[in-house]
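Progress note, sequence design subtask.
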């Protein structure tokens, strides 16, 4: 073992000596193939190599400072010429500094400077291209508008040649640029980045996918449906744990789509995808519920029913928040759809655990006064009956919300509703009764004038 260690030590020393004694021209040629990280490691081998590395680093730092302070196109060309004379592994930082100056050059020179800098970036080792490409991406909007699409495509192509593990860092800035591109270039930019995202490692896609979803609204109207469909097709290629997040990002964009028919198609396709993926996600269904009223009026009732069916497939303990979100949409549905929607949710309430019903009944009190006038009284008392099935400590808030609706009921039904709540107040504790009676006191002026004095006495 000792002989083996000694032999290894001697071999390492011989290798180090051979590197140190190597002609400088050959050593420089070899280093020209190394990345910045490889050169940094090589510089630690021995004092001779460290000295050689240090002089190259010093030269790169000088060029970085020159690039950061340069003024004018000719100065940029001189700096770029000197950068290209450095070994490849030392060029990254000076090129980043030069790329940052492209948008400050005279407008007529920016395109040429951009192209020259990008060409220089291609000569770097793939591992050294990430930061310069990110900086060049930020320079695209400073180029003449007619050249921005080509510049964007060239950067995307360059990013696709970076190592797979490094590409993710470049795609974020490109996604952010899409909304600032000329209108007729956005769809192409969107498609190019989506294709690049689909080439990433699966675990790296979801973050970029959700960011891209937010850009669909900014695309030309005639391209939004296609973009939405392409995104939806890409969801299936994500990891299963990311499906809900990705679909949620798409659902959030539905109301922002320009055409009502596009919104309807998008809503249906994502809901179908949720069924195909067998997702039981309450947050996703809350998002769907919030989009219903953005759909064409004639389709809202059917959309409401589809979401309600999906909620019914959740575990009992997960249904209350999606149901509450559905309730909030009832008053905005077409008049012909409100009653059916109200009745459907109220039926679902009775399937929940008693302790999960309170918040939904609070929400259900509000749309009562948006129902057909002939059904308001019945709806009021159906909700009241549901409240009376709650445990006593959970009744106070729903009863107070019901009391707040009395003034909006048909005048002839108000006294009966008032009486029912007075009776319910007797079942509450002191705090709950006090709160309910306080709300009822505010409703007295809405009762028939000849009964007001009597009701004030009863309170």
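Output:
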């Amino acid at each position: 073992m000792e002989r083996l260690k000694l032999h290894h030590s001697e071999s390492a020393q011989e290798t180090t000596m051979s590197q140190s004694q190597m002609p400088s021209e050959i050593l420089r040629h070899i280093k020209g193939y190394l990345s910045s990280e490889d050169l940094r490691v090589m510089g630690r081998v021995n004092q001779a190599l460290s000295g050689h590395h240090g002089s190259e680093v010093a030269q790169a730092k000088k060029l970085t400072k020159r690039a950061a302070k340069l003024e004018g196109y000719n100065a940029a060309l001189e700096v770029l010429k000197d950068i290209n004379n450095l070994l490849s592994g030392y060029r990254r930082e000076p090129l980043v500094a030069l790329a940052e100056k492209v948008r400050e050059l005279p407008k007529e020179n920016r395109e040429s400077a951009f192209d020259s800098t990008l060409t220089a970036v291609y000569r770097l080792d793939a591992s050294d291209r990430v930061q310069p490409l990110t900086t060049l991406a930020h320079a695209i909007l400073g180029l003449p508008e007619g050249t921005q699409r080509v510049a964007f495509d060239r950067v995307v192509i360059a990013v696709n040649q970076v190592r797979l593990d490094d590409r993710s860092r470049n795609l974020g800035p490109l996604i952010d640029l899409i909304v600032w591109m000329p209108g007729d270039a956005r769809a192409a930019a969107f498609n190019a980045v989506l294709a690049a995202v689909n080439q990433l490692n699966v675990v790296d896609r979801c973050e970029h996918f959700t960011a891209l979803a937010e850009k669909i609204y900014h695309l030309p109207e005639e391209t939004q449906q296609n973009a939405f469909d392409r995104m939806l097709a890409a969801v299936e290629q994500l990891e299963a744990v990311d499906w809900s997040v990705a679909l949620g990002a798409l659902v959030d964009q539905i109301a922002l789509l320009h055409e009502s028919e596009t919104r309807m198609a998008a809503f249906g396709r994502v809901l179908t995808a949720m069924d195909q993926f067998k997702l039981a996600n309450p947050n996703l269904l809350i998002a769907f519920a919030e989009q219903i009223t953005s759909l064409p009026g004639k389709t809202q009732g059917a959309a409401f029913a589809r979401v309600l069916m999906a909620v019914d497939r959740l575990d009992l303990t997960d249904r209350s928040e999606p149901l509450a979100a559905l309730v909030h949409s009832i008053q905005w549905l077409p008049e012909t759809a409100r009653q059916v929607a109200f009745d459907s949710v109220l039926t679902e309430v009775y399937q929940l655990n008693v302790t999960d019903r309170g918040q939904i009944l609070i929400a259900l009190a509000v749309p009562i006064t948006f129902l057909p006038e002939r059904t308001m009284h019945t709806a009021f008392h159906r909700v009241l009956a549901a409240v009376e099935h709650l445990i006593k400590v959970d009744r106070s808030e729903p009863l107070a919300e019901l009391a707040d609706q009395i003034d909006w009921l048909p005048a002839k039904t108000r006294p009966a509703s008032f009486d029912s709540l007075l009776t319910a107040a007797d079942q509450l504790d002191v705090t709950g009764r006090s709160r309910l009676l306080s709300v009822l006191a505010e409703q007295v002026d809405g009762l028939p004038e000849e009964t007001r004095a009597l009701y004030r006495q009863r309170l």
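Residues 47-69 form the longest helix (23 residues). Work on this subtask will continue into the next period as scheduled.
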